[in-house]
Amino acid sequence: MGREVEMIMTSPQAEFFLKTCKYPAFVGxxxxxxxxxxxxxxxxxxxEAPTGMIALYEPTYDLVRxxxxxxxxxxxxxxxxRYKYNKQENIIYCSTGGCADFVLRTLDNPAxxxxxxxxxAHVDELDTLKRDHAADAWRKIIARNRQRPRGVEKAFxxxxxxxxxxxxxxxYETWKRDPKAGYEIxxxxxxxxxxxxxxxxxxxxxxxxxxxxxxxxxxEFVNLTSGAVYPEFSRILNHCDTTVQPxxxxxxxxxxxxxxxxxxxxxxxxxxxxxxxxxxxxxxTPELARMIKERYLLEGHHVTVYPDASGQNTSSKGASVSxxxxxxxxxxxxxANSVNPRVKDRVNAVNALILNDRGERRLKVNTHACPxxxxxxxQQPYNEHGEPDKKTGHDHACDAAGYPIAFLFPVCKPVATxxxxxxxxxx
Length: 427
Hints:
It is built from 12 helices and 14 strands.
C-alpha cells in the first residue's frame, strides 16, 4: 500500500482481510463487525489504487446514509485523508493523493447499477435480498467491476461480500453449497469479537429462538423459514463419518418418482441409523435396482429395501410390473406396509431420531457422502396447508430417508396390520 495504517481486527476479520481470492464473503453473526470489516477492506483497496474508484453497496439508501457513509468518513478522518462527500451524486471524493474515490450505491434496483466502473467493490448485507434479486444485483456489480486504474501494475478487480446468514439464499448457494473457483467464505461467530458488551450474547439468547441463534450468534446457515419440517437437524450434531463396511447389511429407503428416484443407504450402529450413501435423481426403478445390485448386492451385502408403498401400484417407468416386483426380482429383501404411514407419523419418527427429549441423536448422516439428504433435511419447509412442501424439490430424499425410520422406529402402531407387512420377500 502507499501508506502504513494501523487496523485492529478480530481473528476472523484478519483472516478475511488477508484473503487473496476474487470473490471473498464474510458471513457473520450479530456484532461480528461486518461493516467495520467492509470499511477496513475498502480503505485498503483505496490506498492500493489511489487513481481508482471503489464501489460500496447497501440494500437501501437509508443504510448508505445512516451507516455506510458515516463509517467511511470516520475512517478517512482517522487516517488523515481529506475528502468531500457529494450527497447528490453519492460519491466521496478524496482530494489527498494516495486514496481512491468511493461511489456509494443501493441494491434495491439493480437496473440502476450502471454508468460507472469500479476497481474493487464491497457489498453489504447481500443476503437480505430475495434470491433472484441478489443474483441480479451480483451480476450487475461484477460486470461494473472492471476498472484498470493508471499506475496500478497488477490490477486485481475483487468483489467482497459482507452479510448475516439469512437462511439458504443466494450467499449460501454461491459461497457455501457449491462454490466456484475464486469464491471463498469466512464465517464468524459473535463470540469472536472481544469488544462487545459483556451481556450482549446473553441478551440475544433471551430474545431469539434456537434456530435464529445459530444464524445470528454462530454465523451458520440454517432454515429460517417458519415451520421447518426437521428443525432440530444439524449437519454438525447429526454428522457421522460412517461408511459401509465390507459385507455389512444395509437398509435402503426408496422413493419412487419418474426421472427422480431417490435411495438413501443406511447401516445400523448401536441402535442408531447412519446414512452412509445416497442415490438421487435416478431415472427409474430398474436403473436404481441395477445400481444397488452392482454397488452392494454383488459385493456381498444383504440388502433390505423399505420402499414407498405406492410402488405396489405401477412401475415408475410406466410398465405393468410393479416397482416392488422389480426390487424383489433383483434379489433384495422388501419390508413395507400395504400403505404408507401418515406423513405426520413419518415426520415425527424422523424428528424423534434426529433429537429426542433425552437429548439423544440416533439419526446420523455422513454429510459428505449424502449432500442431497443433508440439504433436504436442513431446508424442507411446510407449505401453507401444513404439509411438507414439495415445490422446492427437497422432498424426495427426505421421503426416502423416512420410510425405513417409520418402519423400524415408528412413533405409533403401524397404520395397517392385516396383510400390511410384506414379510421378507428375500432372494
